[in-house]
Amino acid sequence: MSILERNLENQKIKSVAGSMLVTNLYTAGIGGEFFLRALKDKGEIVGSHCETCKKTFLPARLFCERCLSRLTQTKAAPQEGTLKSFTKVYIDLDGKSLEKPELIGFVTFKGFEGGLIHRIFSKDEKKLKVGVKVKAVFEAPQKRKGSILDITHFESQL
Length: 158
Ligand SMILES: [Zn+2]
Fold this sequence. Notes:
Strand order of the largest sheet: 4-5-7-9-8
Helix content: under 10%
Number of helices: 1
Bound molecules: zinc ion
CATH architecture: Beta Barrel
Strand content: 35-45%
Number of domains: 1
Shape: extended
Order of helices and strands: HEEEEEEEEE
Protein backbone atom coordinates (compact mmCIF):
# COMPACT_ATOMS: atom_id res chain seq x y z
CA MET A 1 0.00 0.00 0.00
CA SER A 2 1.42 3.41 -0.90
CA ILE A 3 1.33 6.42 1.37
CA LEU A 4 -1.52 7.93 -0.68
CA GLU A 5 -3.81 4.93 -0.24
CA ARG A 6 -5.94 4.60 2.86
CA ASN A 7 -6.90 1.36 4.48
CA LEU A 8 -10.54 1.63 5.47
CA GLU A 9 -10.81 -2.04 6.36
CA ASN A 10 -9.06 -2.39 9.68
CA GLN A 11 -9.50 -6.16 9.65
CA LYS A 12 -6.71 -6.35 7.09
CA ILE A 13 -4.23 -4.64 9.36
CA LYS A 14 -1.89 -7.08 11.03
CA SER A 15 0.32 -6.61 14.02
CA VAL A 16 3.33 -8.48 15.22
CA ALA A 17 4.00 -8.72 18.94
CA GLY A 18 7.50 -7.93 20.11
CA SER A 19 9.90 -5.09 20.51
CA MET A 20 12.12 -3.32 18.07
CA LEU A 21 15.46 -1.84 19.02
CA VAL A 22 15.59 1.78 17.93
CA THR A 23 18.59 3.92 18.68
CA ASN A 24 19.37 7.46 17.73
CA LEU A 25 22.62 9.32 17.67
CA TYR A 26 22.52 13.06 17.24
CA THR A 27 25.71 14.88 16.55
CA ALA A 28 26.51 18.53 17.00
CA GLY A 29 27.98 18.65 13.50
CA ILE A 30 31.61 19.38 12.66
CA GLY A 31 31.61 23.01 13.81
CA GLY A 32 29.49 22.24 16.86
CA GLU A 33 31.78 19.41 17.87
CA PHE A 34 34.81 21.68 17.63
CA PHE A 35 33.01 24.21 19.82
CA LEU A 36 31.98 21.61 22.43
CA ARG A 37 35.41 19.91 22.47
CA ALA A 38 37.07 23.26 23.12
CA LEU A 39 34.71 23.83 26.06
CA LYS A 40 35.50 20.40 27.48
CA ASP A 41 39.21 20.08 26.77
CA LYS A 42 40.46 23.66 27.00
CA GLY A 43 37.78 25.61 28.84
CA GLU A 44 37.60 27.92 25.83
CA ILE A 45 34.68 29.49 24.00
CA VAL A 46 35.63 29.04 20.34
CA GLY A 47 34.35 30.69 17.18
CA SER A 48 35.10 30.19 13.48
CA HIS A 49 36.85 32.90 11.47
CA CYS A 50 36.10 33.76 7.84
CA GLU A 51 39.16 35.28 6.20
CA THR A 52 37.06 36.48 3.22
CA CYS A 53 34.54 38.42 5.33
CA LYS A 54 36.94 39.22 8.16
CA LYS A 55 34.28 38.03 10.62
CA THR A 56 34.42 35.52 13.45
CA PHE A 57 31.23 33.65 14.25
CA LEU A 58 30.21 32.22 17.59
CA PRO A 59 29.64 29.37 18.23
CA ALA A 60 32.07 27.67 15.86
CA ARG A 61 30.56 26.49 12.57
CA LEU A 62 31.59 24.83 9.33
CA PHE A 63 30.46 27.47 6.82
CA CYS A 64 30.37 31.27 6.75
CA GLU A 65 26.76 32.45 6.84
CA ARG A 66 27.64 35.43 4.63
CA CYS A 67 29.81 34.04 1.80
CA LEU A 68 29.35 30.27 2.40
CA SER A 69 33.12 29.71 2.54
CA ARG A 70 34.25 26.63 4.43
CA LEU A 71 35.66 27.82 7.74
CA THR A 72 38.85 26.22 8.98
CA GLN A 73 40.30 28.93 11.22
CA THR A 74 39.16 29.21 14.81
CA LYS A 75 39.56 31.85 17.47
CA ALA A 76 39.04 31.66 21.21
CA ALA A 77 36.66 34.29 22.55
CA PRO A 78 37.54 36.21 25.67
CA GLN A 79 36.14 34.67 28.86
CA GLU A 80 34.44 37.99 29.59
CA GLY A 81 31.49 39.06 27.47
CA THR A 82 28.77 41.69 27.43
CA LEU A 83 25.23 41.02 28.58
CA LYS A 84 23.01 42.13 25.66
CA SER A 85 19.65 40.96 26.99
CA PHE A 86 18.28 39.00 29.93
CA THR A 87 15.10 37.80 31.54
CA LYS A 88 13.99 35.93 34.63
CA VAL A 89 12.34 32.56 34.07
CA TYR A 90 9.99 30.84 36.51
CA ILE A 91 9.24 27.59 34.65
CA ASP A 92 11.46 25.00 32.97
CA LEU A 93 11.25 23.76 29.38
CA ASP A 94 8.53 21.27 30.40
CA GLY A 95 6.38 23.99 31.95
CA LYS A 96 7.12 22.94 35.52
CA SER A 97 7.71 25.60 38.13
CA LEU A 98 11.35 26.09 39.07
CA GLU A 99 12.20 25.91 42.77
CA LYS A 100 14.12 29.13 42.33
CA PRO A 101 13.69 31.50 39.36
CA GLU A 102 16.73 31.78 37.06
CA LEU A 103 18.18 34.63 35.05
CA ILE A 104 18.83 33.77 31.41
CA GLY A 105 20.79 36.14 29.19
CA PHE A 106 22.32 36.64 25.77
CA VAL A 107 26.07 37.23 26.00
CA THR A 108 28.19 38.63 23.17
CA PHE A 109 31.97 38.84 22.87
CA LYS A 110 34.12 41.63 21.44
CA GLY A 111 35.13 40.85 17.84
CA PHE A 112 32.65 37.97 17.47
CA GLU A 113 29.37 37.75 15.56
CA GLY A 114 26.58 36.01 17.49
CA GLY A 115 26.81 34.96 21.10
CA LEU A 116 25.61 32.51 23.70
CA ILE A 117 22.38 32.22 25.66
CA HIS A 118 23.09 31.00 29.16
CA ARG A 119 22.37 31.32 32.88
CA ILE A 120 23.39 34.60 34.47
CA PHE A 121 24.36 34.97 38.13
CA SER A 122 24.65 38.26 39.89
CA LYS A 123 25.34 39.08 43.52
CA ASP A 124 22.68 41.78 43.31
CA GLU A 125 20.34 41.15 40.39
CA LYS A 126 18.62 44.50 40.91
CA LYS A 127 21.82 46.16 39.68
CA LEU A 128 22.01 43.92 36.64
CA LYS A 129 21.43 45.75 33.36
CA VAL A 130 22.09 45.40 29.66
CA GLY A 131 25.70 46.25 28.84
CA VAL A 132 27.35 44.91 32.01
CA LYS A 133 30.37 42.61 31.72
CA VAL A 134 29.86 38.95 32.58
CA LYS A 135 32.48 36.24 32.89
CA ALA A 136 32.13 32.55 32.00
CA VAL A 137 32.36 30.15 34.92
CA PHE A 138 33.32 26.60 33.92
CA GLU A 139 32.81 23.24 35.56
CA ALA A 140 35.94 21.65 36.98
CA PRO A 141 37.88 19.98 34.10
CA GLN A 142 37.14 16.43 35.32
CA LYS A 143 33.38 17.15 35.40
CA ARG A 144 33.10 18.54 31.86
CA LYS A 145 31.11 16.47 29.36
CA GLY A 146 31.41 18.37 26.08
CA SER A 147 28.14 20.23 26.65
CA ILE A 148 27.16 23.88 26.73
CA LEU A 149 26.60 23.20 30.43
CA ASP A 150 30.38 22.83 30.83
CA ILE A 151 29.93 26.56 31.30
CA THR A 152 27.84 26.54 34.49
CA HIS A 153 26.86 30.20 34.12
CA PHE A 154 28.07 33.68 33.34
CA GLU A 155 28.71 35.80 36.40
CA SER A 156 28.34 39.49 36.82
CA GLN A 157 30.44 41.25 39.43
CA LEU A 158 27.45 43.46 40.27
ZN1 LIG B 1 32.60 34.76 4.77
